[in-house]
Amino acid sequence: MKKSDIPYAKTRYIMYGIILLYNLINMGVIVENFKNGEENYLCAVNMGCIVLADLYLLYFVKMADEKNYYEKQLIALEQQAKVQYEYYLTQTKKYDQTVHILHDVNKHIKAIEGLYGAEQGNTAGEYAAEIRELLKPLIPVQYTENPILNILLTDKESVMREKGISVTIKVDNVNLNFLAPIDITTIFGNLLDNAIEATEKLKGEKYICIKIGSYHKMIVVSIENNCNEVKWRNGFPVSNKGKNGGIGLLNVQSSIKKYDGDLTLKNDGNKFAAELFLNS
């Protein structure tokens, strides 16, 4: 009866119900034996043993349920750490590219100056445009006032375009600085990774549309993509990642709850949408 913060699983309720029903029947039979006056002391011992066995069984069911809960929490945390690790690996790679470009920047400047000195302005302009394109992936687009989200969206957009996915990003004038950096990478990283994974398998048109806006005092985020047929289980799309599939969405839900938010997943034909609301 001790209060616990761990939510009860459905199987736990079922097991408790079965144990209760079994005990009521068993003790009813024992009470009948008491009434008949048959071996009263043996019936009393039997009832005492049943109570002790039931207490142990209830404790075992409780511990098994809590063990399963904590195992899921551990997997969720490991998945979250993996998202963070992959994100920082991307940043390390970008840093290496930046160092490489900066190493040669003097050569590029001298080359452009030489072209202008030789009155080859058009060639110099083309050369400068090439350098600009080279630097473009390294400069985060200012989608919002939140630098972490800007970097993440810039990185994911680059990945999408490499995979031939058409990207649309629409961000209203919203303030997302109330979000913790780890929650930004968890929420947007997981949802965008899921969208990319579902979309890259398609043949023909591939698209992902990201919208971030506000509704009253809430932040509204919508991520829509086209996909193949989606199978559902317990309100979540079935992942093809095996035993640990779907943990990313559990992480997303956990982060959203910190801001009294809500996540809705929708599927209409070949369209899939994740919509979330966050209280700022």
Structural notes for this entry:
With 280 residues, the chain is an alpha+beta fold. Helices cover 59% and strands 16% of the residues. It has helices at 10-36, 40-103, 105-117, 121-135, 147-162, 181-200, 247-257; strands spanning 166-171, 207-215, 218-226, 232-233, 236-237, 262-268, 271-279. Helix 2 (40-103) packs across helix 6. The longest helix has 64 residues, at 40-103. The model has no long low-confidence stretch (mean pLDDT 77).
Strand order of the largest sheet: 1-2-3-7-6
User: First CA to last CA: what distance?
Assistant: 37 Å
- Rounded to the nearest angstrom, the radius of gyration is 29 Å
Instruction: Please count the beta strands (DSSP E, at least 2 residues each).
Output: 7
Q: Spans of 5+ residues with little confidence (pLDDT < 50)?
A: none
- Can you summarize the main beta sheet? 5 strands, mixed
Order of helices and strands: HHHHHEHEEEEHEE
Strand content: 15-25%
Helical fraction equals: 55-70%
Mean pLDDT: 77
Summing up helix and strand content along with how strands pair, one would put the structural category as alpha+beta
Structure annotation, total helices: 7
Shape: elongated
